[in-house]
Specification:
seven-stranded antiparallel beta sheet, alpha+beta
Length: 534
């Protein structure tokens, strides 16, 4: 039983809780996180991840089964994380107990043969000095050391000896570093379980905002395993304005969004809420959450005027296709006015779909529209207008930036016009369709992409990281040293003269521990009456 069960379990536990295994698992954890940084991840961008899988065919499917597109929630990453945690706990607790025992124990006895130490010095003391007095003098000069004096009765060689140690803070700093690392791992795990992140696109016109009351207010939401979305910290924000400063060549230099906010449920008019400047890497902090500015773009405004004179106006965010020029694409879906088509099927056959691109500064190659710069100097849109079932009532998730090509191929959505339009209401700004419906380009607004992040363990992570650095600095700067002194009275023989000889030896891991070539001088200062250095 012991041979086949207990011994293998004991050996496995000893291997797992060794510092070598802990370091290997720490390296393996860092290596395992690499795919999470290089590959698209389902929780961050499901659409981009799915496109990546489809583009790589069978390889993409295999990578998906291996959970390479959801690394930090994968079983193998969690296994490495847990094993590292167990290894650190099993490694550190015995080391802590050993360190506490060493703090209570006396310094190690003086070795029998000090001449074998890497640093040793034999000093003859002038004058008639008793060994006990000399031992007390050495003990006094060893200020800041843990020391003990062995009397002749306690000594192995029957004479006075002094043993001293210094540098216990080195092991203490080492333990602090590793326990702080353990604390950091726990904090990250707690943050992943109780934290959440939500993203949302807001048109910065002083009308759109969000209240952090439900996961439904976000375009995408990623919560920890213990977050169900029913207990979010309440706050509200509204995007009032967004400005971009440009370099002389038209490239963006600085982004600044004016946001109004209120902590808790709104009880006053939003116009009276405090105003904050939110920039890249300068988030708005409230209710334990951080509101980050992630991106920006343009939201063209279109007005569709139906044959009966009724109008529908929509401002829809377009997604940037070229970040250098902010050439953007998107789609608009417009439902006819209520009562215009009483029958449901007829109403769905007369929905309007608009698909096109937006250029901040138009550049034409014939009729082909592109953009020359990201700064909006001469905005234009190139649109294609469709009539038919746009999928508004299908209940199926759709791409917000493109119309459903399946509906086009099936004939449910037919193209009825296309044009390049500039802002305004005059010629070149309005497209008239065959049934009298008109589509006009009224201009554009700015949109911003924000991310709301809540991590209840963020302060814990910060403190753990700072303590790790402090422990590492202490363990690197403090040097562990030992010094021994043996006091002997030597009889010269016939003349009856007696001499007092002190043998001093030092031991350290490296010469950088404080001995170096000056050990002889330090040893003599230990024995001298005026010695005040150690």
């Amino acid at each position: 039983m012991q041979r086949y069960v207990i011994a293998p379990v004991r050996n496995t536990w000893r291997s797992l809780t060794s510092m070598r295994t802990a370091l290997a698992l720490l390296f393996l954890l860092a290596l395992a996180a690499v795919p999470g940084a290089l590959l698209p991840q389902h929780p961050l961008n499901a659409a981009k991840t799915q496109k990546y899988i489809e583009a790589h065919g069978r390889l993409g499917q295999v990578m998906d089964k291996l959970q390479l597109f959801d690394v930090f929630a994968s079983g193998w990453f969690t296994a490495i994380y847990v094993l590292l945690f167990v290894s650190l706990v099993g490694c550190l607790l015995p080391r802590l107990a050993e360190h506490l025992r060493s703090l209570r124990a006396r310094p190690v006895p003086v070795p029998r043969n000090l001449a074998r130490m890497p640093r040793h010095e034999e000093i003859e003391v002038d004058g008639d000095v008793e060994p006990a007095e000399l031992a007390a003098r050495i003990e006094t000069n060893l200020r800041g050391w843990r020391k003990t004096v062995y009397s002749p009765d306690e000594s192995k060689v029957g004479t006075y000896e002094v043993s001293a140690e210094k540098g216990y803070l080195r092991e203490f700093g080492n333990l602090v570093f590793h326990f702080a690392l353990l604390s950091l791992l726990i904090a990250i795990a707690v943050g992943k379980m109780y934290g959440y992140e939500g993203t949302r696109i807001l048109v910065a016109d002083g009308e759109q905002g969000l209240c952090n009351t439900s996961t439904a207010v976000y375009d995408s939401f990623r919560g920890g395993r213990l977050v169900d979305g029913t207990d979010l910290q309440p706050f509200c924000i509204r995007a009032d304005d967004f400005t971009v400063s440009y370099t002389p060549d038209g490239q963006p230099a600085m982004f600044d969004s004016k946001m109004r906010y209120t902590d808790g449920s709104p009880t006053t008019d939003p116009g009276t809420w405090p105003l904050a400047d939110v920039r890249v890497n300068k988030p708005l902090r409230l209710a334990g959450s951080r509101v980050y500015l992630l991106g920006h773009g343009f939201a063209p405004t279109f007005t569709v005027t139906f044959p009966n004179g009724e109008k529908r106006t929509q401002t829809t965010p377009f997604a940037p296709d070229e970040l250098a020029t902010m050439l953007s694409s998107g789609a608009v879906r417009v439902d006819p006015p209520g009562g215009m088509y009483p029958e449901e099927k007829v109403r769905r056959r007369n929905q309007i779909g608009i698909e096109g691109i937006f250029a901040p500064t138009a550049k034409f190659d014939g009729t082909l529209l592109s953009s020359s710069t990201a700064e909006p100097r001469n905005p234009y849109v190139a649109i294609r207008v469709y009539r038919g079932d746009t999928g508004l009532d299908s209940g199926r998730p759709q791409n917000a930036y493109a119309l459903d090509t399946d509906l086009m191929h099936s004939g449910q959505l037919k193209r009825v016009g296309q044009a390049n339009l500039k802002p305004g209401t005059g010629p070149g700004s309005v497209l008239r369709l065959d049934d009298g419906t008109t589509v006009s380009f009224d201009g554009y607004k700015r949109w911003i992409s924000i991310q709301v992040s809540n991590d209840p363990a963020q302060l814990w992570v910060l403190v753990s990281a700072l303590v790790m650095v402090a422990g590492l600095v202490v363990s690197l700067l403090v040097k562990r040293r030992r010094v021994w002194a043996r006091i002997r009275v030597v009889d010269d023989g016939a003349d009856g003269q007696r001499r007092t000889v002190v043998t001093v030896a030092g031991l350290a891991r490296t010469d950088q521990a404080g001995w170096g070539d000056g050990f002889s001088e330090q040893a003599r200062e230990l024995v001298s009456r005026s010695g005040d250095k150690s």
